[in-house]
């Protein structure tokens, strides 16, 4: 299905007229593995996606017959890049694993067929990050396209190194960075500009990344909780292998194989479901372009300021209203841009590393990324929806923050392409 | 010296690469927005139109605004040169416009320690052969 013009990405956005009409109800997750072995079909991305969807339906207390919409990321990787590019060509399996669909990506159509959804009237495999998918689902419900939607988010990872490009030629947009060997160095470059501008340094990231790992170990779906539950220390962080200047391996989220699904429905139907409704107050999106080839700190601060203001204008909240704040962290060197743009807990430009040196613990006054972010859970991104949802439903268990948990803001993915979701326990 | 990765022009970028082969550094210019644009695109990033886009030769002089070092690239062809230097230079007559360079003549690759990169130093463009018939811009610090 073609992409609709559903994004709220032009100022002034104004208070969203769908505010409070859609409610996030439930979440479901698959197991989390490091990689798929390419052979074990019960651990394929499709199989994991079905597990996650069933868990979400069970969590909501509904069945496939209650669902009339599927909105998802089919891409198999968060950026929509087809995993089949590095996996194939190779032989397929017996149906339903007789194509890439179900193995390295999962469409709504494939899920509908495998899981027996009979009442679907709206499917969209938009492929954008999870924040945008939640926004798209909320908009679809507010516009009446569907009443009860399953949002799907499969993240694949295959054997071998992630995102390695063996080509000796560069084409299209890749010409401009690849010819000069520019890759992840860009994240470190912008962060270095930040450090130069504000007189700080990479080592001061350590308390933040360590705290995220602690939080992530308390989330049962985290890769680390399931597979590497040991302590991660500041010393570990400081000794991390460098990928580029000012970007270590511990600033990069670890690719994993996992799937998650969410149930979102109308405010009316939400009253009859099993979990406490969490209402979507607003969704806003952005897509920017750098002034020239390389994204600079000036670009980054301008874009994040625009998106933060857009979200505030769209939701009507202020920084003081945000109880649960989940700004994206994969790469970890992004997060300070978002904290400062939103001004959460009064943090201004250049102050994030001082903020990290204070109390950002789960039970303290500033429980930043209480789910652990990608650094604490792996590169699945879904903790940025599941944790705020669970915090606002007061069922985050050991991660439950001690202060008020009535309004949450979740934001991702990159400074250059952004989506923000504002959630509340109150329909508004 | 052959480069690890060779750029393949497309219809939009062909004039840029043709100019490189002639020893000229050109960027796009939108006369309505009065704005230079690099890398080249089919339309102006500001107004979204192509009617007023043309190519404009630059001085080729630029200043170093920052740098990075790549220790573990996702670009496999660059692996034998790790760690290598990535420098960002901004065009002297329009500092918004920036370019990549490896400053290969001065600092090289397979670095054994972090080089002392002079931020703010003036550089001049030079064209190096990435592959037969394919010149690319690099920059050299003006001594």
Verbal overview:
The complex is a heterodimer of chains A (428) and B (143). Chain A has 428 residues and is an alpha/beta fold. In chain A, 31% of the residues lie in helices and 16% in strands. In chain A, the strands form two sheets. A nine-stranded mixed beta sheet of chain A has the order 3-2-4-8-1-9-12-11-10, with helices on both faces. The two termini of chain A are 32 Å apart. In chain B, the strands form two sheets. Chain B has a five-stranded antiparallel beta sheet. In chain B, β6 (84-91) and β7 form a beta hairpin. Chain B folds into two domains: 10-57, no CATH class; 59-143. Chain B is globular and about 50 Å long. Chain B is mainly beta and 143 residues long. Chain B has helices at 14-21, 104-107; strands spanning 6-7, 26-30, 35-37, 53-57, 61-70, 84-91, 94-101, 122-131, 134-141. Classes of the chains: A alpha/beta (428), B mainly beta (143). The A-B interface holds A 162-173, 175-186, 188-189, 192-193, 196, 241-246, 289, 291-294, 296 and B 3-10, 13, 37-39, 45, 65-78, 81, 84, 86, 88, 90, 96-102, 114, 130, 136. β5 (169-170) of chain A pairs parallel with β1 (6-7) of chain B, so a sheet runs across the interface.
Give the structure's gist in a few sentences.
Chain A is built from 15 helices and 12 strands. Chain A is of the alpha/beta class and 428 residues long.
Strand content of chain A: 15-25%
Give the N-to-C terminal Cα separation of chain A.
32 Å
| Multimerization state | heterodimer
Poorly predicted regions of chain A are: none
Helix content of chain B: under 10%
How can the largest sheet of chain A be summarized? Answer: 9 strands, mixed
List descriptors.
heterodimer, A: 428 residues, alpha/beta, Peroxisomal Thiolase, Chain A, domain 1, 9-stranded mixed sheet, 31% helix, B: 143 residues, mainly beta, 2 domains, 5-stranded antiparallel sheet, 3-stranded antiparallel sheet, 2 helices, 41% strand
């Amino acid at each position: 299905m073609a992409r609709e013009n559903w994004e709220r990405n032009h100022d002034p956005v104004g208070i969203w007229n769908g505010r409070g009409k859609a409610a996030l109800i439930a979440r479901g997750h698959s197991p989390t593995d490091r990689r798929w072995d390419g052979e074990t079909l019960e651990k394929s991305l499709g199989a994991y996606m079905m597990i996650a969807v069933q868990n979400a339906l069970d969590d909501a207390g509904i069945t496939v017959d209650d669902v009339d919409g599927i909105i998802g990321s089919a891409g198999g990787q968060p950026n929509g890049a087809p995993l089949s590019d590095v996996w194939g060509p190779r032989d397929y399996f017996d149906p339903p694993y007789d194509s890439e669909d179900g193995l390295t990506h999962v469409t709504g159509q494939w899920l509908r067929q495998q899981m027996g959804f009979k009442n679907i009237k709206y499917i969209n495999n938009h492929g954008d990050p999870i924040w945008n998918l939640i926004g798209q689902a909320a908009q679809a419900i507010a516009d009446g396209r569907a009443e009860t939607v399953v949002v799907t988010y499969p993240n694949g990872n295959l054997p071998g190194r992630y995102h390695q490009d063996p080509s000796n030629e560069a084409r299209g947009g890749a010409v401009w960075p690849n010819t000069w060997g520019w890759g992840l160095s860009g994240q470190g470059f912008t962060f270095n500009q930040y450090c130069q501008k504000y007189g700080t340094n990479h080592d001061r990231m350590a308390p933040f990344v360590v705290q995220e790992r602690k939080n992530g170990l308390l989330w049962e779906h985290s890769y680390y909780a399931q597979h590497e539950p040991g302590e991660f220390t500041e010393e570990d962080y400081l000794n991390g292998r460098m990928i580029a200047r000012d970007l270590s391996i511990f600033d990069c989220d670890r690719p994993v194989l996992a799937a998650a699904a969410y149930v979102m429905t109308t405010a009316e139907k939400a009253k009859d479901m099993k979990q406490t409704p969490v209402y979507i107050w607003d969704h806003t999106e952005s897509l920017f372009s750098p002034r020239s080839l390389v994204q600079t700190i000036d670009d980054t601060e301008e874009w994040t300021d625009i998106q933060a203001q857009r979200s505030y204008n769209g939701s009507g909240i202020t920084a003081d209203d945000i109880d649960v704040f989940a700004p994206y962290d994969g790469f970890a060197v992004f997060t300070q841009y978002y904290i400062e743009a939103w001004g959460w807990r009064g943090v201004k430009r250049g102050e994030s590393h001082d903020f990290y040196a204070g109390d950002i613990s789960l039970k303290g006054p500033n429980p930043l990324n209480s789910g652990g972010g990608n650094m604490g859970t792996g590169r699945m991104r879904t903790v940025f929806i599941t944790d705020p949802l669970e915090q606002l439903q007061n069922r985050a268990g050991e991660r439950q923050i001690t202060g008020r948990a009535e309004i949450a803001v979740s934001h991702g993915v990159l400074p250059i392409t952004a989506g923000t979701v504002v959630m509340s326990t109150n329909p508004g | 010296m052959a480069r690890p990765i060779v750029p393949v022009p497309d219809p939009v970028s062909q004039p840029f690469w043709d100019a490189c082969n002639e020893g000229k550094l050109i960027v796009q210019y939108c006369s309505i927005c009065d704005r230079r644009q690099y890398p080249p695109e089919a339309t102006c990033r500001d107004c979204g139109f192509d009617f007023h886009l043309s190519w404009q030769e630059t001085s080729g002089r630029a200043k170093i605004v920052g740098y990075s070092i790549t220790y573990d690239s996702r670009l496999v062809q660059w692996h034998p040169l790790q760690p290598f230097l990535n420098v960002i230079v901004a065009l002297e007559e329009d500092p918004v416009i920036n370019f990549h360079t490896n400053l290969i003549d001065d600092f090289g690759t397979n670095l054994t320690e972090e080089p002392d990169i002079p931020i703010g130093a003036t550089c001049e463009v030079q064209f190096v052969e990435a592959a037969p018939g394919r010149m690319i811009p690099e920059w050299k610090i003006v001594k």
